Amino acid sequence: MSDARDTLFRHITMLQLIPRYPGWISTPALKEKLAEHGFLVDIRSLQRDLGQKLSSQFPIGCDDSQKPYRWYFDRDYQCQLPALDVPGALTLVLAEEYLKGLLPPVVISQLDPHFNDARQLLEQLAANGLSNWARRVRAIPNGKALIPAALDEATWHTVAQALLEQKAIDVQYLSRSAESEKAFTLHPQGIVSRHSVTYLLAHVDGFDDLRQFALHRVKHAALSDRAWQAQEGFDIDHYIQQGAFGYRQGIEDIELEAEISPSAAWLLQETPLSEQQSITPGPQEGWYRLNVTVPNDQQTLWWLMGMGANIKVLAPREWQDELKATAQKVLAHYPSH
């Protein structure tokens, strides 16, 4: 009885680990993940379970055109282990609205089966109050959202596999400053989605410096025969905090002093720039004095420029000078007639 129960639990776990097409999982990867769940099984037994037992009961496909074999559920297969509940479905519906403005369609498509399951559940509960609520709520990204850069599906699958399985990749890459593609062997260390662009963090084979590669500029990607190399001491959170994506202009944070309009004061009281922020009445009637610790980066400067006439920067002086220079350039675009 114990062996039969263990086999049943192993089969359930296997079903949970197999993704829908176009996703897939190789036989060795499935064996490794089963071991992480406490199920030790050899490759031959695993292939027999998949090819004979489970495939006869579930729509499991196999790509046997290359080794190791790759396993997947049919794209339209509907199954939830465990079943999706209404709050979970609502969360997925709202997440879909938000993520569509941030991630490339090929990335979102990996979640389409889950989004479809969520919408189907809510449609089946037409009289349910939560279902009605879902049709009246939308998530809108802050600021002007650009359409995410198009990303090749095969490239995404290769990069994701390389990152998760710690493998190097051979790519053809077209940088912004180059007129032709260049061939690189990359050692992936992380992926970051920023605004409408998804970046691969990797170092080039033979070099130690970590670089950012926009995935939509990768024209071809394939797993490399070269052994993957870790970036010594790499921590993705520390990397981001150091201003890697904010065009940081200095290591230390700075103290921003400014006078702000009433509407800007309301905004920053409700959604502060940082935890080290104070807003007090200013010398100009109705305006306020802002003191806040912020990163010394281009991102913060862009935010200040976007505030326009609602903010007057007093310090640091170099930011004040840069804002003046930018304003003068903008005015030069619109000469008086």
From TrEMBL:
Residues 253-331 form the WCX domain. PANTHER family: PROTEIN PAFC (PTHR34580:SF1), PTHR34580. This is WYL domain-containing protein. Residues 157-221 form the WYL domain. InterPro entries: CBASS_pafABC_assoc_protein, WCX_dom, WYL_dom.
